[in-house]
Amino acid sequence: MADATSKFYITTPIYYVNARPHIGHAYTTIVCDAIARRQRMLGNDTYFLTGTDEHGQKIERSANAAGKSPQQFTDEVAAEFKSLWDRMGISYDKFIRTTSDEHKRGVQAMFKLLQERGYIYKGSYTGQYCVYDELYVDVDTPGAPCPDCGRPTETVREENYFFKLSALQDELLKLYSAQPDFIRPESRRNEVIAFVRGGLKDLSISRTTFKWGIPVPGDEKHVIYVWLDALCNYITAIGFGQPDAGKQFARYWPADVHMIGKEIVRFHCVYWPAFLIAAGLPLPHNIVAHGWLLFEESKMSKSRGNIVRAETILDVLGGDALRYFLMREVVFGQDGSFSFDALVQRFNSDLANGLGNLASRTLSMITRYFQGQVPYPSAAAARTPAEEAIEKLATQTIGDFNQLWDAFQMSRALESAWALVGAVDKYIVETQPWAVADKQDEDSRSRLATILYTAAEALRIVTALAHPVIPESTARIWAQLGLGDISKFKLRDLKWGQLPVSTKLEKVEGVFPRADKSAIERMQTMEQERQATAAPAAVQEPAGTGAQAGQPATQAAAGATAQAAPSAPAPANNYIGIEDFMKVELRVGEVKTAEKVEKADKLLKLTVDIGTEVRTIVAGIAKAYEPEKLIGRKVVIVANLAPRKLRGIESQGMIVAASLGEEGSPALAGFHEDVPVGARLK
Fold first, then answer.
1. By the 8 A CB rule, do 175 and 273 touch?
2. Cβ atoms < 10 Å from Cβ of 220
3. Could you report the per-residue pLDDT of 556-578, keeping only the tens digit for each?
4. Residue 573 pLDDT
5. Which of 36, 144, 164, 348 has the highest count of CB atoms within 10 angstroms of its CB?
6. Under a CB-based contact definition with an 8 Å cutoff, are residues 196 and 173 in contact?
7. How many angstroms separate the Cα of 96 from the Cα of each of 15, 71, 336, 419, 627?
8. Are 469 and 34 in contact (CB under 8 A)?
9. How far apart are CA 652 and CA 657, in angstroms?
10. What DSSP string runs through 414-446?
11. Helix and strand numbers, DSSP H then E, in the chain
């Protein structure tokens, strides 16, 4: 990925601020963080950029619906992203916001440069526009579904500035041919080539029908198209268009890796290089597209209520558990599946029973048998073919790991490292150092030292290789080995035999306590409570074919989320038939009792009379309503919703409420007229 002593510049997509962050966003960010950490360990001058995309018509509308200014709205959500990345220890060098003054100056400078070089002209546009994707679409019928997300498009008639994309078709095809690794993996490259060969049209790069964007310099009634705006973050963050731009921009541009989700390949692999070619700027070295993250084989979306927040996993298992799972379980470039069961299983097998157990048993025996000092391995009599095999495998693992990682095969790289863990565990079982320790002769003592040094040295090598992926845990193991600060270790120099003899170990402590079934239950409960609180918001965002939750402008959808193949595709226009609506049984109920649910600050337990029976319903409305004030109130419930347990209470339906503001504060649906209990809504 980079040569010795070189610079290395890596970027995440910037995340769209119409939804709070979850593990889809975290996946992309963790991958980039691991790559950046490894580059630093290799001694390269590394710059890691992430941030948020905050302009566009969708944000303006969302802010208005929440009763906030667009700036206030974006400030709040951007702060949540930054806070989560900080909590996770993401080692970014800069967090860019597209509402910042430096970004605005840089985007306007780019617009002027393209204009001066003859690639921008003024015209008018009439056609269909997808607000959700911030995308002009090639469909003829007003209201026709967006071919990307399936949502209804809007007819737009406005004066625009256009970018001469069509003039660069041949040059883009030459780029893809001359630099096969420009787009990875090959499947994405082939998609892009097919798209460009199909013919490119000039691209509208300004809007006049809304104001929440960066004004076109010299023609302020236009705002710059959100995709030109957003893509420029990669250069504005390092000084492009600033008065003092030269030094940092010259040092780090072009980017070595743009990491993106596969659904935004067109924008990054067609529009972005076209903008750069037209501006006379160097192109990034690699644009790497990863797959989608599925939740139990289903798409993550607000409407499905199966969004998983990274905070849930951080609270129960810690950040390294999430990092390792996503990097090891998901084959990079392909779609991957997440479930709490799989997370805990991988945590226990690879971390608790694997690396953690190897560290604990090896360091504990050194402490017990050699007073906590790394013993001297015999160079002759005490060595056997078993030690030679471990040394050979460790040396091979270093080479394999480096080769696989640099090819963006991070899961296989980790697999190779954990094969070494498994081999050393087997080596310890077969050599039985505890039995050797029972013998007091000099040869046995020398043999014991050789066994434990071999195990400790293999542990050191795995710890160094895994550090970019699980930094907190490996830093603790490294310190227990008596080696100090792992971040100062030069990974480029890693080889067998570097563990200093007589090194004094630090106190040996477990790093990965085994997780039991209750960990799964706790995480499921935490997510169910969030879903109960957020359930009313699900109707706000229609889930069209291929729709993604929380779509960022440079990272569409739920960061890295998508849907599995549905058994029956949703109607292209996102409508449902009357027969589908009639399946939902909405009835008027009267609250008879209300009380808070123990250890759940958002939940209330209600008993609701629906005419034919009294139901128990758990609702996420505790922060908006005092229990005693709900008694006697008439509400709307979904009466035929399948029961589910929340905090051990079976909830027999759902109360209907609106979701207000970015915080999703619930507002119960009600009636002005006197409506009888049990009446059905139709």
1. yes
2. 10
3. 333 333 333 333 333 334 466 66
4. 45
5. 36
6. yes
7. 10, 15, 28, 39, 43
8. yes
9. 16
10. HHHHHHHHHHHHHHHHHH-HHHHHT--SHHHHH
11. 23, 26
Q: 345 with 412: CB under 8 angstroms?
A: no
Q: Are 413 and 400 in contact (CB under 8 A)?
A: yes
Encoding tokens for residue 506? Answer: 């630090």
Rounded CA Rg of the chain: 29
The Cα 1–Cα 259 span in angstroms is 13
Nearest to 81 by CA among 40, 21, 13: 21
Residue indicated by tokens 């630093």: 40
pLDDT (tens digit per residue) in 93-125: 999 999 999 999 999 999 999 999 999 999 987
Pair 609, 638: CB distance under 8 Å:
no
Q: Are 50 and 92 in contact (CB under 8 A)?
A: yes
* pLDDT tier for residue 535 given thresholds of 50, 70 and 90: very low
**Neighbour-count burial for 87-126, b at 16+ CB within 10 Å, e otherwise:** ebebbbeebbbbbbebbbbbbbbbbebbbeeebbeeeebe
* Per-residue tokens: 10: 């890596």
Say which amino acid occupies 450: T
Report which DSSP code applies to 373: B
Tokens of 143: 């209201």
DSSP 8-state secondary structure symbol assigned to residue 504: B
Q: Angle at the Cα of 522 (from 516 to 525), degrees rounded to 5?
A: 145
Rounded Cα distance, 90 and 96, in Å: 14
Compute the distance between CA of residue 274 and CA of residue 278 in angstroms, rounded to an integer: 6
- DSSP β-ladder status, 183-184 and 206-207: unpaired
Q: Which two tokens stand for residue 80?
A: 């949540």
What letter does residue 502 receive in the DSSP assignment?
Answer: T
Cβ burial of 444 (10 Å; 0-12, 13-18, 19+) is: middle
The two structure tokens encoding residue 649 = 């209470």
List CB contacts of 278: < 8 A, sequence separation 6 or more: 114, 117, 119, 163, 164, 168
Other Cβ atoms less than 10 A from the Cβ of 355: the count is 25
Neighbours of 560 (CB within 10 A): 35
Pairing, β 120-130 against β 135-137:
antiparallel
Q: pLDDT, tens digit, for every residue of 266-301?
A: 999 999 999 999 999 999 999 999 988 887 655 555
Could you give the CA distance from residue 138 to residue 504 in angstroms, rounded to a whole number?
68
> Tell me, what's the pLDDT at 563?
32
Residue type, 653: G
Amino acid, res. 326:
L
Could you give the residue ranges of the DSSP H alpha helices within 89-178? 101-116, 169-178
Identify the three-state secondary structure at position 461: helix
* Least confident window among 75-79, 125-129, 468-472: 125-129
Give the span between the Cα atoms of 399 and 382, in whole angstroms: 27
How far is residue 213's CA from residue 99's CA, in Å, rounded to a whole number?
8
- d(C-alpha 665, C-alpha 581), whole Å: 26
